[in-house]
Amino acid sequence: MQKMESEQIFRSGFVSIIGNPNAGKSTLMNALVGEKLAIVTPKAQTTRHRIIGISTGENYQLVFSDTPGVMKPKYKLHDKMLKSVGVAIADADLILLLSDIQENFPEQALFTLFKTTKIPVFLILNKADLSSKEQITLRREELEEEIKPEQTFIISALKKTGLTELLTAIINRMPEGPAYYDADQLTDKPERFFVSEIIREQIFLQFEEEIPYGTEVSILEYKDMGDRVHIEAEIHTERLQHKGMLIGKQGAAIRNLGTASRKNIEAWLGKPVFLQLYVRVAEKWKDNQRYLKGFGYDNI
Ligand SMILES: Nc1nc2c(ncn2[C@@H]2O[C@H](COP(=O)(O)OP(=O)(O)OP(=O)(O)O)[C@@H](O)[C@H]2O)c(=O)[nH]1
Ligand SMILES: [Mg+2]
């Protein structure tokens, strides 16, 4: 009888995924939610906004937050990114501190964020598929000593190993509580946000060096006509020279970018899309409060 009662408990809570750039945070959130919400690229500092992913089961609802990688801020943009990590930590019932076993740059900036928090931490060692037992043990000892996590998990977010065990432990660690969102809701941001992220992902994948880091995407027009969607987006870049490279010879680069973006947006929305891209120069936008506000960095 008692057993039956305990089975009825509904658990819910906020789980924030924190870590260095490129640790695999977005890959992990997508895998845990079972849907590609956050963009993933091989380049560091891909994620710029906190992104929520909701996973609802019969007895639980987990509200994950994927966050930008923690690094030393160089621009106002980075200050805002870091602030969103701070908010995600403060809001959390549980923190998943994700560490890439392969990386050996220190996680010092991260540790300072944890010094004052009493929120429980699970240490997640990621990219086990690329790592030897010795590497894993060494990393584990180093980080457990520094962070003193409640539990440690060794996973591959990419290959989806160790995730069932992790998910069960997360659910069990949640307090008893209500569902905060409808069972079929996956995230909190509108579709146009994800469209701009898909275009940004393609810029990260198709262009090298400074271009992705100096680029932002905003949606000028988003018209859902029922059977298809009409989208016009603007790519803001820091320099005139980069604008030229984004457009390419006789518009070849922007055409490729447009085609790849459109295909991915169509897959995400599940209907045909008309996509028009424009490129404009927005000098020093990364340090310009007005631009940053326009790009949504004030609504953390
Ligand atoms: N081999 C391997 N690669 C992984 C794993 N998890 C993530 N990656 C790769 O690592 C790279 C970075 O992944 P992301 O999920 O974008 O990392 P992130 O922590 O969100 O990065 P930022 O948003 O830049 O902070 C991508 O190329 C992923 O495919 C893993 O378990 N194994
Ligand atoms: Mg990311």
- Tell me the major beta sheet: 6 strands, mixed
**Spans of at least 5 consecutive residues with low confidence:** none
Proportion of helical residues: 25-40%
CATH topology of the largest domain: Rossmann fold
State the order of secondary-structure elements, H for helix, E for strand. Answer: HEHEEHEHEHEHHHEEHHEH
Describe the structure in your own words:
- With 300 residues, this protein is of the alpha/beta class.
- The chain is 39% helix and 22% strand.
- It folds into two domains: 2-173, Rossmann fold, CATH 3.40.50; 191-294, GMP Synthetase, Chain A, domain 3, CATH 3.30.300.20.
- The strands form two sheets. Strands 2-3-1-4-5-6 form a six-stranded mixed beta sheet, with helices on both faces. Strands 7-8-9 form a three-stranded mixed beta sheet.
- Helix 7 crosses helix 10 (252-269).
- The longest helix has 18 residues, at 252-269.
- The radius of gyration is 20 Å and the shape is globular.
- 37% of the residues are buried.
- Bound molecules: guanosine-5'-triphosphate and magnesium ion (MG).
- Residues 25-26, 38, 46-47, 66 line the site of magnesium ion (MG).
What descriptive keywords fit this protein?
alpha/beta, 2 domains, binds guanosine-5'-triphosphate, six-stranded mixed sheet, globular, binds magnesium ion, Rossmann fold, 300 residues, GMP Synthetase, Chain A, domain 3, 11 helices, 9 strands
Short structural description:
The chain has 300 residues and is an alpha/beta fold. It is 39% helix and 22% strand.
